[in-house]
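Chain A, query sequence.
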Amino acid sequence: MKNHVISNNEEAQELIKRLQEYYHEPVLPLSSFCRAMSVWRDCIVKNNTDPNLLRQENQGGRYFNFLDELYVDIRKSNLLARLLYAKEPLRSRMCPIHKGHYDGNAMFFEKCPHLCDGTGWLRERAGDEGFSGIKIVETPDSEIGKRRVQKWFGKFR
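Chain A, predicted structure.
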């Protein structure tokens, strides 16, 4: 396959259309999927809080109060970032130090000697890079010891 640079949106849309025909299912950028999930969540919440929409049995009525908490967990999920953006397989071997539990210090500041990347689970493949979707950036104008955290993968909106 030739290494061809996509030059415009129309060309990108044509490639997506061809991929959809090949896979026989929708193909879309992750940001579009994330936006759709966010709209779905907002609609479920509105359907259960807007007085004009309330009924005896509303879609999501049993769980809509938990969607905001779930949304936060999804947005900050290292596992989802590794599965979706880094295309890593699910990790199955527990770290002997962190034993399957998150450790922010090992993720961002002091690397785990077993390369669990602070997730508590060991990388499955040698080529995996410990993707976290978060980058620590030292800022020269900040106070000593303060760090700024930046997310650099697509946001779940």
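The helical segments are 9-23, 30-49, 67-75, 78-84, 104-108. Residues 89-157 form one domain.
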